[in-house]
Every structure is written in structure tokens, then in C-alpha cells.
Amino acid sequence: MRIAMIGTGYVGLVSGACFADFGHQVTCVDKNAGKIEALRRGEIPIFEPGLDALVASNVKARRLDFTTDLTAPVAEADAVFIAVGTPSRRGDGHADLTYVYSAAREIAAALSGFTVVVTKSTVPVGTGDEVERLIREANPTADMVVASNPEFLREGAAIRDFKYPDRIVVGTDNERGRKVLGDVYRPLSLNQAPLMFTARRTAELIKYAANAFLATKITFINEIADLSEKVGADVQQVARGIGLDNRIGSKFLHAGPGFGGSCFPKDARALVKIAQDHDVQLRIVEAVLGVNDIRKRAMARKVSNAAGNLRGKTVAVLGLTFKPDTDDMREAPSIPLVTGLLDMGAKVRAHDPAGMEQARKELPDIEYCDDPYVCVRGADALVIITEWAQFRALDLKRLKREMAQPVVVDLRNIYRPEDMAALGFIYEGIGRRRTSPVNVVEGGRARIASYTRR
Ligand code: UDX
């Protein structure tokens, strides 16, 4: 099959490289000439494990190439995927579809022979209808079908998610369109991924409903974590205890500092707007957004509760990106957290394995360190915000030696409270009892060995 991928952002580049890897002939198109030149040189503009090697091998095999001009690739394509950005529109939370619609108009002019035009960007319900109308208006004789094929990739695990999806959703009632997309995804049926055909609007809604549901699940367990702290329960065990019920499922039940990223906040806001436009109030999703925003802002207070008044103190922060294995800082919980710490008068030093360059744009007033141990040197408290693998096995004895006060606030629960207490840390996780150190000397006075429960 011949595929044209319009947009070399996250979704476009990962999807294009994976389709090529299946053996399809793929051309990725982007208006940004600098980006295309860089891609031709083998430079990948995003941080995604394994993507550079995947792109390189498929370019070498001549199944993947890059261009700024969509004319030839669209004319030759069996399927044209629109994978351009749909940012939140300033002010009203609606998805901004400017890029989708201008791509549709340009595609219309270049179409030749039967082609399926596929929206892969996350677009509001009904966008496929408008894309079809725009193409028909610009090119009334075009032999084409517009389908919706939402993506469910997670940053940091995108290639695996693409190659081993839980399901593939294809939204079109047109039989010829279904056949073409069935052929495009045939290699995945070997992995037994269910290919689900639906009407176009249903597919568009599935994407939003999936993201809003996952955001709800996270927010639910975050609130249960708050309650766990008060009643002396352990949210990790609560999550396991409920997650083993197949009807609930164990995934996306990790309590933390609140969800961030480029999708959950933006898509949940857009879904609320879509519903409002249709006189439906999605009260649960609205509440999820509100609760999550408040939570992210409340995390700085959690640090001051553990470490005391922060004025003049130094707080070390490990992890800045919204999740591990990405350099993405969009809506990262670290932003309101660090801002809150600065507002409380703290000095902040931070380390992140991949996100420091992006973070500097959002958080210019902190000190960046290349190494976790340098970061914690002389610190009065350490906050772990992102659960990067390299933070899971830190040399804790060394960490404690480097710190001025052994206070650790672990917002991802990557350490065990009893281990931290035994090592002499004042340790606070999420949704678990706070532990005080065994035999720690504080202010010259020995504290009683204890393992306190709040
Ligand atoms: C998400 C969806 O998972 C994906 O299907 C969709 O295509 C895009 O949006 P992504 O934003 O890359 O993917 O990351 P994800 O792993 O889903 O995490 C989103 C946020 O939720 C992160 O801030 C993460 O830390 C948080 N999270 C996730 C939790 O706090 N707890 C969890 O149990 C899971």
C-alpha cells in the first residue's frame, strides 16, 4: 500500500515509521522545511525510545521518505492520513482545527484515483463530515472517502503501542474505505489486534471517551489516595485490591501528583466543550478537570507539610517531564509544583534525564543539575515528581549523605516507606502513611525511633 502521512509531529512520525516497518510505502509530509531537512539527515525532532532506529532502517530500505510537498505523495496514495496538530484554542478550550482543515483543502487539490482520507489527529465529533465537505467543495469529482482512525499511542511507549494495540478503530460506513484500511492494518491482525469498524462519528467519540475515562480513573484513585492518608490505609494496596476485579482492571490506578501531558487535559476539555455544544453536561469529566488542576497546585503544600517552612530552604526536584521516557513538559505537574515552591520562598534545583531543555522555557528561575546526586547536595528536601527508571534505584545512603535534611517526598511511590524509615529518612509518599526515621538526630536532639502513622 502507498501511504501519505500529513504532519510529522508525534503521531505522524511514529505512525509513518511503523507503517513503513510493516512494509508499506510511506511518505511523511510537513510544511516545516527545517524539520523535513533534519529528518532526511536522520535527526528525530522528538524524544521517543527506538524511533530513531526505526526511521533510519526504513529510510535505508527506501520504504520511508520525507517531503514538504504533498502533491505527488497524495496523488499516488491509497490512504492519506491527516496527523497535524489540534491544539486547545486559546480562551475557550475547543480544539483548534485550522491545521486539519487547511490540510484537507490541500489534499483535495492533489487527489487522484480512489483514496481514503483518514483523520488520525484527535478531532471533535463531526470533523470528518466537515473534512469531507471541504474536499468535495474543492474537488467535486474526487473519488474519495473520509474515515476516522484515532490513535491511542502513549508517549514513551508509542512504537510498542502502535505495533501491539489493544484495538484499532476505523470509522467509516463505506465498504471500499473499510477494505483499504483493512489492508493497511492487516500486518497488525497477525498480532491479533481487533479491528473494529464503526460509523465515523462513533470512532471520533471513542477517542475522547477513552481518554476521559482514563483521566477519570487516575483522578478517582488520586482522591482515594487523599483519603488513604487520612484513614491510615495504603492506596497502592487499595488499587491492587480493586484492580484485580476484572470489571475494574489494574491499569491507570497509580496515584500521583495529577495527570498531565499533551492529551488528557486537552482532550477532556475539548470533550466537555463538544458536549456543551450539544446541550449535554458531562459533570464527571468537568469534575475530573477541576480536581486535577487543584491537585497539581496542592502538591507544593505537601512538600512544606513534610519539610516545614520552605522560606530560604533548598528543595531538590527529580523529574520534570509529565511522565518518564519523554522530554515533554506539556501540562506537567512539575510546573505548578515548582512554581508553588518558589512562591513559598524556596530555592529549587532540578534534574531530569531528558526534559531540562524544555523545562527551562517553563521554569527559567531554577537551577538545573546534570546529575541527581549533585542536585540533592545540601538540599533540605527532595521531591520525586517523575518516575524515571534511573530514580528507582538511587544510592539512598549516598543521597542521605549529600542532603542537609533527609526529607523525601515521593509523589510516585517508587520507594517503600519502611525501607526509607530504616535508612533514616523522613519520607512521604502518596496515599500512604508518612514515616519518620529510625534513630535520626534532628537539631542536635535524638528523636525516638519511630514509624509514625498520621
Ligand atoms: C495518553 C493515552 O494513554 C493515550 O492512549 C493517548 O493516545 C494519548 O494520551 P500519554 O499522554 O502519552 O497517553 O501518557 P499516559 O501514559 O497515558 O499518562 C498520562 C498522564 O497520566 C501522565 O501525567 C501520567 O503520569 C498520568 N498517570 C497515568 C497517572 O498519574 N497514573 C496512572 O496510573 C497512569
TrEMBL record:
- Sequence ranges assigned to domain UDP-glucose/GDP-mannose dehydrogenase C-terminal in this UniProt record: 316-417
Q: Name one Pfam family in it.
A: UDPG_MGDP_dh_C
Q: What class of enzyme is it?
A: oxidoreductase
Q: Which residues bind substrate?
A: F152, L153, R154, E155, K207, F252, L253, H254, A255, G256, G260, K323
Residues annotated as catalytic: C263 (nucleophile)
Record's NCBIfam families? NDP-sugDHase (TIGR03026)
Looking up PANTHER family in the UniProt record yields:
UDP-GLUCOSE 6-DEHYDROGENASE TUAD
| Binding sites annotated in the UniProt record for NAD(+) | D30, K35, T86, T122, E155, K266, R330
Q: Which family does it belong to?
A: Belongs to the UDP-glucose/GDP-mannose dehydrogenase family.
Which InterPro entries does its entry note? 6-PGluconate_DH-like_C_sf, NAD(P)-bd_dom_sf, UDP-Glc/GDP-Man, UDP-Glc/GDP-Man_DH_C, UDP-Glc/GDP-Man_DH_C_sf, UDP-Glc/GDP-Man_DH_dimer, UDP-Glc/GDP-Man_DH_N, UDPglc_DH_bac
Q: What is the lineage of its organism?
A: Bacteria, Pseudomonadati, Pseudomonadota, Alphaproteobacteria, Hyphomicrobiales
Q: What is its EC number?
A: 1.1.1.22
Record keywords: NAD, Oxidoreductase
Q: What is this protein called?
A: UDP-glucose 6-dehydrogenase
Q: What is catalysed by this protein?
A: UDP-alpha-D-glucose + 2 NAD(+) + H2O = UDP-alpha-D-glucuronate + 2 NADH + 3 H(+)
- Keyword Cell membrane found: no
GO biological process terms, alphabetically, are:
polysaccharide biosynthetic process; UDP-glucuronate biosynthetic process
Tell me one GO molecular function of this protein: NAD binding
Pathway field of the UniProt record reads: Nucleotide-sugar biosynthesis; UDP-alpha-D-glucuronate biosynthesis; UDP-alpha-D-glucuronate from UDP-alpha-D-glucose: step 1/1
